[in-house]
Amino acid sequence: MSALEPANTLRRGTQEFSWRRLGDVGLGLLLMLFGLMRGIATVDAAREGDWLASAHHGIVGVAMLIMSVLPIVRRPAVKRSDGLMPKAIAAIGGYAIIPLGALPLTWRPDWLLATTTVGIVAMTALEIWALLTLRRSFSVFPEARKLVTHGPYGYVRHPLYTVYIVTYSLIALPRFGVLAVFIAGLAILAQVLRSRSEEAVLRSAFTEYDEYSAKVPAFVPWLRQRLAAVPTTAHTTEPLQSDRRRQSI
Q1: CB within 8 A of 34, min separation 6: which ones?
Q2: Of 137, 180, 133, which is closest to residue 153 (Cα–Cα)?
Q3: pTM
C-alpha cells in the first residue's frame, strides 16, 4: 500500500461528507421555503373564513418546517444502500405528491372534499409524531443511523410510509382518473419498495432488527396479532365441537 493511499482515502471521504452536508442544507432550505409558503396559504384561508383549509395548510406547513431542520441536525449514517435505484425509488415515493396534487379535481362534492381534507390533516399529525420521534435519525434515502422502536414505531415499522400511502389515496380520490390512479399507484408501489430497501439496510446495521420486525407489523397496526389469533380461535373451537357431537351421541 502506498503511503499516499490513506491520505487520498481520507480526502475522498471528507469531500463526500462535504457534498452530503451541502445537500442536507439545500434540502432543508427548500423544505423551509415550502413550509413558509404553506404558512402564507394558512393566513389567506383563515382570512377567507375557510378554517378547514387553513388547518390543512397550517399543519402541512408545520410538518415541512420540522422536516427542514432534521436533515441539517441528523447524526451521520452508519450504513447506506448502494446504487442509484433505491434513491430514485425514494424520490418517486416522496415527491410524486407534487404532480398528483397539481391535477385538476374531477369529483368535488363538498362531503368528499371535507372528508379527504380531514383525513390528510389527521395523517399529517401522525407524520409530525413520527418525525419528532425520529429526530436525528431521519433519512430521505435508505440509511441507518439509530434503530428507533418507540412512539409510532412501536405500532408499525414504517409509520411515515403508511402516512404517505394513505395520503396519496386521499389526494387521488377527488382527482379520480387514469393519470391520478397511475401516479398514486406508482407512488404507493415506490413506498413499498422503499420500505424493503430501508429494511435491508437496517437489518445489516442492527442485529436486533430481526427481533423488532418479528413483533411489529410493517404498515397496519395490530394486523399481526389479529392474524395470529385466527388459528388459535379455530383450534379452540374444535374440541368444543367434538364435545357437542359426543353429547349428542
Answers
A1: 64
A2: 133
A3: 0.82
